[in-house]
């Protein structure tokens, strides 16, 4: 099959698994023909997504610092119009301040044996992702649920956390952003790991991203997508209303006063 496309079976396997991108639009056209994707609308949508992913040159300098499959995911992320996410452990990535993000990478640096360049590059990359929700032209619709534990975890010190809470409150004021907190004392379903659901325009199937050690998983398998959607909806129903987010964060800072560090 790979020979029909002009490259090896190994490369075809890596393309199908998402480890590498197709560098040319003609490669995608040939691949769709081979897989009997004949509907004109489907072909046009896939080609548009491919062109958009190839045009995301700002991510090119970061590729050496990304886990496998992340460049492919970045293209999907920028082509999506709705994102639903659950984060149980740390502040959701698009909400993180520069100081918070840097502190996270610094904490992991001696364990992961990363470099200072890795820390600074990933901090910058995380901040630039925020443009997806703050841009004036067609900002991404973002719905995030964070577990209370993610917000109670002290990263970098109290001043960094206070600034981080302020950032979450400001971003939650955007019309396209909804933030909910899932309290510790609520008995409900809780996903065991973080996940992101991406929805696309033009009837393209949604995809789900989950984080794995040193890589990520991205799939459009109906079973995986369905489970993530059901999990998100269950947690959304149990989480605090979006209007209560700011007050909850304020109460967290008040609780610090009764502890000595």
* Strand segment count: 6
| CATH level 1 class label of the largest domain | Alpha Beta
Strand order of the largest sheet: 3-2-1-4-5-6
Main sheet, how many strands, which sense, barrel?
6 strands, mixed
State the share of residues found in helices, binned by percent.
Answer: 40-55%
Q: Any idea what the shape is?
A: globular
Whole-Å distance between the termini?
A: 62 Å
Structural class: alpha/beta
Discrete helix count: 12
Q: Examine the coordinates and then state which fold CATH places here, giving the name of the CATH topology of the largest domain.
A: Endonuclease, Chain A
Q: Which architecture of the largest domain per CATH?
A: 2-Layer Sandwich
What proportion strand?
A: 5-15%
State the low-pLDDT regions, or none. Answer: 55-67
Query: Rg from C-alpha positions?
Result: 20 Å
> What is the mean pLDDT?
83
How do the helices and strands follow one another from N- to C-terminus? HHHHHEHHHEHHEEEEHH
Describe the structure.
The chain is α/β, with parallel strands linked by helices and 261 residues long. The chain has two domains: 1-55, no CATH class; 69-95 and 130-256, Endonuclease Chain A (Endonuclease, Chain A, 2-Layer Sandwich). 50% of the residues lie in helices and 13% in strands. It contains twelve helices and six strands. It has helices at residues 2-5, 9-17, 25-34, 40-54, 70-79, 98-112, 116-129, 131-134, 148-152, 158-172, 222-238, 245-256, and strands spanning 82-87, 141-147, 177-182, 195-199, 207-212, 215-219. The longest helix is centred in the C-terminal third of the chain and has 17 residues, at 222-238. The radius of gyration is 20 Å and the shape is globular. 21% of the residues are buried. The model is unreliable at 55-67 (pLDDT under 50).
């Amino acid at each position: 099959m790979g020979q029909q496309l002009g490259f090896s079976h190994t490369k075809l396997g890596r393309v199908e698994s998402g480890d590498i991108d197709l560098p040319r639009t003609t490669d995608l056209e040939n691949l769709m023909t081979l897989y009997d994707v004949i509907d004109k609308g489907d072909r046009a949508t896939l080609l548009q997504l491919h062109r958009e992913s190839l045009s995301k040159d700002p991510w090119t300098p970061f590729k050496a610092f990304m886990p496998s499959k992340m460049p492919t995911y970045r293209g999907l992320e920028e082509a999506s119009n709705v994102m639903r996410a659950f984060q149980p452990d740390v502040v959701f990535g698009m909400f993180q301040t520069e100081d918070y993000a840097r502190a996270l990478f610094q904490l992991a640096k001696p364990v992961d044996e990363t470099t200072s360049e890795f820390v600074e590059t990933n901090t910058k990359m995380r901040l630039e992702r925020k443009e997806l929700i703050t841009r004036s032209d067609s900002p991404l619709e973002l719905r995030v649920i964070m577990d209370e534990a993610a917000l109670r975890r002290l990263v970098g010190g109290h001043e960094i956390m206070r600034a981080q809470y302020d950032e979450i409150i400001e971003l939650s004021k955007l019309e396209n952003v909804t933030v909910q907190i899932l309290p510790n004392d609520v008995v409900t379903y809780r996903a065991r790991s973080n996940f992101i659901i991406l929805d696309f325009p033009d009837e393209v199937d949604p995809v789900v991203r989950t984080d794995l050690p040193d890589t990520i998983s991205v799939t459009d398998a109906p079973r995986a997508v369905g489970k993530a959607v059901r999990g998100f909806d269950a947690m959304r129903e149990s989480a605090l209303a979006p209007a209560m987010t700011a007050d909850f964060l304020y109460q967290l800072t008040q609780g610090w006063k009764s502890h000595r560090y």
